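[agent] plan:
  1. take the single chain provided in the ticket
  2. run structure prediction with default settings
  3. attach structure tokens to the ticket
  4. add a short note for the reviewer (M.T.)
[agent] executing step 1
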Amino acid sequence: MKKTFLIALLSISYTLSWAQYSQKYGKITEDELKMTVYSKDSSAPAVFIYEDSYVTYNYLSNLFQITTKYSAKIKILKPEGVEYANFSIPLYFNNNGRETLSGLEAISYNLENGKVVKTKTEKQFIFSENISPNVNLTKVSIQGVKVGSVIEYKYSISSPFTYSIPSFKTQHRIPVIYGKYNADIPEYFNFQFNVKGYENLSVKEESRPNTFNVSTGQGLEAVKCVNRDIMILSTDMPAMKDEPMVWCSEEYMSYVEFQLSGIQFPFERYEPYSRDWKSIEKTLEEHPMFGDHYKISNPLEKETKEIVAKNISNLDKICQLHQLVLNNTAFNGHYSLYCNRPQAVIKNKTGSNSEINFTLMGVLNDAGFKAYPVLLRDRSSGRLVEFYPSIDNINYFIIAVDTPDGKTYFLDGADKFSSPNILSSRFLTKGYVINPSKKDKWVDLSRISNSITKAEVILNFNSDMNLVGTIRRTSSNQFSYARKSEFNQLKSKDEYIKSLESNYVIKIDSLTLTGFENYGNIVEERLHIKKETMKNDSYVYLNPVILPTFTKNPFIESNRKLPVEFEYPLTAIQFITIVVPDNYTIEELPKGAKVSLMDDGIVFTYLIQKRDNLITIMYNYTQNQIIFPNTDYAHLKEFFTVVANKNVEQIVLKKK
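[agent] step 2 finished; step 3 output follows
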């Protein structure tokens, strides 16, 4: 009896909690308007009260089309939540058809003087723009929105691309109280679907009868079939929170994706529809704005011949050919997978990444090398996935070049800091190779170079017992790229000095830079520095690590949901020598340490010795593994606690 009563009470409580929210479009409750905070996440700037997407197939004019009906209601809780009043709707088109938008409506509701004020968004706040050769973006700015507003919008998209059901995110940067995704698919289309992410979703699938009216030339005939009715529900979906050292957190959001396996219409054979990477490669090869450029003529033919004729190594020739393109072009900031006439980039002296890289490919091929594209998706957008081929996920490509001695180098002609196997860290991810002779189509670009920074530090004391000395730091490969990029952004040597002084809490008396404005993968910095110590009449306290790798543990949260993703494999070495004045003795030194993680995935070594009036330190931080699952988080946290502490430990000197 008591158990039955308890169940009934819980049921009533659940019903009442949902009664304060409405999942019906156009119905705004008083509780929604008066809501000031989302109880399950008080930090949320806004919250989806509901999000509803319904995908179904229609049969019109003897052709199938997909209709997606979407609606959402959002409560604005904080000033930064107002941005959710602006949203975009992508519409795709190609030679086979285009998607169309209809029924767009966007409304804001506010409670003013006890009355509900409704503001409808007019057409002047809705506009479209083409953002690529195949995508048009409809942008909407809902009017009358402020903290406390409830906004609601809906629209329908009709698509002729019946072989592709768009993916649907069930998780966002703000929480979702109630989410519903419904796909109603005729038996003719055999889709596989995956539910991904870290959060739980309710998935239900059942069959239901359906009827289409088909034109026979003598009228309409009813054709019966069976539909797969897929329903995916979520309640109290938490917001996707940013965590440090994640390339693309949106990649780990909960979402639903579909992939077509095959089709079978009445009285016809089953037709497999396996969209694999080879078919995507073929599509690009046949595309006039991509594949037509594989045999691009060389617009720098004379200069190329002069380089080829030199008695230098293959790598040196590739470097000079790369420089040739870099010196005759400039990236205009426009990213595109496709282009029309890449040769024009030499005449115009500027162009998109695709125009410049196709030109580079033509130059390299004309020089007798084998050059070809490597398809990418930059880290901030998420990775290309081997088992989920999609041409829409590709947003960049670089050039690979093979040499007669069997070596392969990777280049980006649109990046002035790039050199062979040195790329922006944005593109140090998995790439797909377009080269028929290559059996292994995937390359891990994060491991194409070994990046080392080595510092030789010699420190003395001035009359005030502050540290003075010299630092010679040599940086190679990705470290070199990072230093050049930072220097370029700061635009002057003086600004670069200020940045170093701020980062390392030092005063720089002079700085000599080598290689920062030259092509190549090595740069050198020579610094004369001063660093203040803590002192009193008897003791001097100093931190000997002038260029620390970490002074704070980047992992401070007790738990973590997402994996940890570092930039690239690296080694950071310092050799430090400190000359102690004759009137001081060494009172206390930090202890040496060597710690490693995950079978030497990361290794940190700190060796310190004293001999007469000299203190020497050998400091080595080596990172071989760059991606760790969240199950390793506790070990990472412990490891970096040791590293951070060693970077700030003090030497104590005592006055004689």
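[agent] step 4 note for reviewer: Residues 2-19 form the longest helix (18 residues).
[agent] ticket updated
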